[in-house]
Amino acid sequence: MKQEVDRLVAKDDQIQHFLAWVEQKSSSVKVSYKPAAIRAFYFALDRDLDRDLDRDLDRALALALDLNRDLDRALDRARALDPELKRSLQTLRDQLPDLSHGNKGQFKQWWQTNGTAWAEQLRTVMVQHRNIGHDWQFSPGQRGLLNQYYNANKLLVDCLNSDCYVSREVRQEIETGLLLPRRS
After folding, report:
1. Which tens digits make up the pLDDT trace of 36-88?
2. Which residue of 29, 95, 117, 126 is most buried, as measured by CB atoms within 10 A?
């Protein structure tokens, strides 16, 4: 079953490049979670960022207040980590209209004029400072394939977590190989 799941994306070089990035990015963080769980996080995160930065105006408006709060938190964390990242995030935050008075009309107008360029600047900062938010430019077919691949991997995990019996060695081999690029 694992081999069939891996064959879904084995011949697509762009998806393989994405999976190699997922592996590299997940290996760069030091946390106490299983490596496959970290890969799943980055797989979903970057794939969704690619789609979410292209959302329509209503979605952008709904997220604007959260974005202001998130940028505030990111600035607080960046203060101790990376002065250049802090400066970049502050510059982006300063470009946003003041939403403290609930002026949705002002934000709509600003977003229509500046939203695409602003989102691209945010993406550039994320890629430059945290190596996330790449514009993978997946085709609709590739997006479908990635969803199928992700769901098939999730099914494998669900099977491993069910009452089915698999030897410890096979279980470990499957878990270790989840969401990885093909090996030459």
Report:
1. 888 888 888 766 555 544 444 444 445 554 555 555 565 566 556 678 887 88
2. 126
